[in-house]
Amino acid sequence: MRRVAPQARRFLARRRRVLLGLAGWSLLESAHTFLGGYSAARALDDGFLAGRTGAGLAWLALAAVAIVAGGPATSGVFRGLAGLVEPLRDSLVRRVVSGALRAAVAGPAARADSAAVSRLTQQTETARDSFAGLVLVARSFVFTAAGALLGLASLAPQLLLVVLPPLLLGLLLFAATLLPMAARQRDFLRADEALAGRFGAVATGLRDIVACGAQERTTEEAGRLIAVQTAAARSLARWAAARNLALGVAGQLPVLLLLAATPWLLGQGLTAGALLGALTYLTQALLPALNTLMTALGAAGTRLLVILDHLTADDAGTVATNPRAPVRPECAASEPPLVELRSVTFAYGPGAQPVLRDLDLVVEPGEHLAVVGPSGIGKSTLTALVAGLLAPDRGEVRVRGEPVRHGGAERQAGRLRVLIPQQAYVFTGSLRENLLYLCPEGTGVPPQAVEASSEAVGLGPLVRRLGGFDAPVEPAALSQGERQLVALARAHLSPAPLVLLDEATCHLDPAAEARAERAFAERPGTLIVVAHRISSARRADRVLVLDGVRAACGPHRDLVQRSPLYRDLVGHWHAADSPPDRARRP
Fold first, then answer.
1. Helix or strand holding residue 534 (H, E)
2. Spatial separation of the C-alpha atoms in residues 138 and 6, rounded to whole Å
3. What confidence tens digit (pLDDT) does each residue in 494-537 have?
4. CB under 8 Å to 390, separation ≥6 — which residues?
5. Cα separation of 357 and 394, whole Å?
6. Which H or E run includes 570?
7. Is 171 in a helix, a strand, or coil?
8. CA dihedral 529, 531, 537, 542 (to 10 degrees)
């Protein structure tokens, strides 16, 4: 907030002529406020109560003429308002664009983020509209209050003794809530953004989180963020209640005091018309203007302060990197697991045809299995069942003798397996944080191990291009193949003994894919690969061919002899060098 105030003063000081013009039109516009209460008092005292109906009607007609005459003044106010609002918007847009361009030319490590679009559109427009509304409301209250207080003084100075104290007290109470409310509004927005960012990161890496059994830790961290947001919302609500109290003191208490002081005022010689005029000023001018002012300042005002504080920050438009990585599942080294499927049947819905039907499969410890088949036959479904992302309709999936429960919630889930899907998950943070994502929290991983896994899968050139393992990574700046290399190095570094690669190399060229799969074949543990090239199938110890009705499993050489579907797939691969996903049976 301290950063906004000096810049706001400089902005307004450069536009004194516009401010003077607004003040002049507002003064003319407030004339009907003065005449409203004064004409009502005179119409009653000098007209209707005195038996002069014509005089009473003339005073009321004067008040009506004053309202109509305020129309041109209102038009002048809006013309003057444009001279304040549009320069503010232009200034904010220039600041945001300049910051985004500085970030873009700073290099890959400091690329402009997508938040610049929000700052350029939504936030600048919100600031513009909020500023326009506040200017209108503030100047309306100032000149309405001036007209009403002048009218009260002209009717009877004693009225000011009744009205001014509660009015000033309420305004002071309200002013005392402005900065705390702005701070609570800022805290709430930050908590809301943090919660939304965490949920976005969790949604992106949901398969990794579930496959590695990190649901409990993810839930705990989300719970902490929700608690912070809830506390911020409650604190904001308490200050909103304080604002309502200030409104009651400033707006309602003067009316009550005026009614309570009526006998004393009549004893001081006040007329019925003066009391009517005072009530008119309070209920028709001061109270509506005060209510509008407090509502606008309490909502739009605090929002404007927060947005301006954000947009005028020195680093506005630059990338904010997350110093902490998203949830890292706790994986620990263990003996290679045995994967077993017992008569597994699975369908996507009660009335759907089964994708897998009565599938039996045993994967021995340390084995390299490739899974092939036409598109939609159930290859990704199989890896999801082994990872615990899906639950079979019938049958059982076991890993190292323990049943796999839906959601990967069994005690040792995160210590047994890692699933890398086709859409590689890379988060904003350092490259090292990305690579240690599947390693235990607090357990030191030697830098040599990080470097060895990176070189093994072919990530080394990207590491050097980014500037080392501690260089910041922005996912949008990486190609799909580069993101897959990061995910592969992360899985290779993980101590999990079972690795599931669901077309995790589909964006790599054949040489890069061969290097990555060779690295996993040499890595201790069990490897299940959804293959999309014949070379992947040839490198595996066994190949599982899914055919919807039946499945065949064996070495590549044997399957070429005894599986017609596998021969069809191999023929397509040889003819077009296309992924097996795209090769369907004729």
1. helix 534-539
2. 20
3. 888 889 998 888 888 888 888 988 898 888 888 999 987 777 88
4. 346, 381, 384, 406
5. 9
6. helix 564-576
7. helix
8. 40
- Among candidates 330, 491, 363, 505, which has minimal Cα distance to 418? 491
C-alpha separations of 198 from 31, 226, 303, 324, 475 in Å: 55, 10, 23, 11, 16
78-110 pLDDT, tens digit each: 777 777 777 776 776 777 666 656 555 444 433
Residue the block writes with tokens 């008569």: 343
- Residue 485 reports pLDDT greater than 90: yes
CA distance 361 to 344: 9
Say if residues 475 and 443 touch (Cβ distance below 8 Å).
no
List, in order, residues 6 or more apart from 318 with CB less than 8 Å away: 99, 102, 103, 106, 110, 112
Residue 328 near residue 436 (C-beta atoms within 8 A):
yes
Residue of 354, 406, 296 whose CA lies nearest to 550: 354
Residue 309 CB neighbours (<10 A):
16
**Tokens of residue 228, six digits:** 């912070």
| pTM, rounded to two decimals | 0.48
Q: Do the Cβ atoms of 491 and 328 come closer than 8 Å?
A: no
Q: Which of 96-105, 260-269, 287-296, 330-339 has the highest mean pLDDT?
A: 260-269
Could you tell me the pLDDT band of residue 488, with boundaries at 50, 70 and 90?
very high
Give the number of other CB atoms < 10 A from CB of residue 24. 14
For 350-355, which contacts have Cβ atoms below 8 Å and span 24 or more sequence positions? 354/393, 355/381, 355/548
What six digits make up the tokens of 178?
A: 């402005």
CA distance linking residue 310 with residue 97, whole number of Å:
14
> 441: buried, middle or exposed (CB in 10 Å: 19+, 13-18, 0-12)?
exposed
Q: Are 210 and 390 in contact (CB under 8 A)?
A: no
- The token duo for 575 is 């003819």
430, β-bridge pairs:
472
Q: Where are the alpha helices (DSSP H) in 14-123?
A: 16-29, 31-42, 53-105, 115-118
Rounding to the nearest 10 degrees, give the CA dihedral for residues 69, 75, 78, 83: -110
